[in-house]
Amino acid sequence: MQRAIVIMFIAMSLIPAGDSAGKIMTSQLGVAPVFVAWSRFAFGTFLLLPFVPPDTLRLFRNWRIWLRAAMLCGGITSIQTALQTEEVANVFAAFFIGPLLSYTLAAIFLREPITLARSVLIVAGFAGVLLVVQPGYGVSIGLLWALAAGTFYGIFLTMSRWLSHLAPPLSLSFSQLLISGLLLLPWGLLHLPDLTGPIASLTVVSAACSMVGNLLMLYTYRLVPATKVAPLIYFQLLSAVTLGWLLFGALPDVLTWAGLGVILVAGIASTRLR
Q: If 35 and its partner were Cys, which of 130, 191, 236, 271 is the partner (CB 3.0–4.6 Å)?
C-alpha cells in the first residue's frame, strides 16, 4: 500500500498541473475548453505511440474500452469548461464527488470489500465537497460543470479497475487517449486557435502532465483495489491549492478552506486503514 500511496501522490500532482495549463489557455488566452480537452488526448496519443505494445489494437474490439474512454472524454471536457470561470481549488473540490461515486460503484458492481471506517471517511470527504460547493447558495455554472466532471471521472475510475486485467497500463492508457481524441476530433478542429508559442507550449505541458498522471494511476489500480485507491484521488487538492495560489493568486475563502481540510483529512486517514 505504501508504494501505491507514493505513485498516486505523484500522479495526483501531475494531473492538476496539466489542468492549470489548460486554465491559462481558456481563461487568459481565449482558447476553447473543447480544444484543450481534444489536444490533450491527441498529443498524449502521439507521445505514447512509440511505446505501445503490438497487441494493443485488440482492445478496440471491446465495447467496454470505448465506454470507459467516453467517460474520460466527458470528464476532461467538463473540467476544462469549469476551469474557464472557476478557481482551480474550487473546481477540484467539487470534482471530488468522483471518489465517493467510484467507491460506491466498486462495492456494488465489482463486489470489492468495504469497511465501516472507510465508508465513514469517504462520506466525510463528500461533506467537505458540500462545504466548497455550498448547494442552495447560488451554485455557479462552473461548479456544476465540475460536479459533472467528477461524476464522469468516478465511473471512469471504477471501469479502470474493472478492466485492468485486459491489458498492461500502457495499452489501456493509449486506448483511452486515442478513442477520446477521435470522439472529440470534429469539435477540436472546429475550435482550432492560432498556435502561438505560449499556446503550443501550454498544450504540450497540459497533455504530457495528464498522460503521465493517468498512466501512473492505472499502475496503481493494478496494485490495489479501487475502494482503497479512490480516497487517494484527494491528493490532487494539495497540488490544486498550491498551483491556484502560485499561478493565479487565488486562495480559498473560509468555508472552502474548511471543506478542503475535511477532504484532505478524510482522504489521508483512509489511506491508513487496512
A: 191
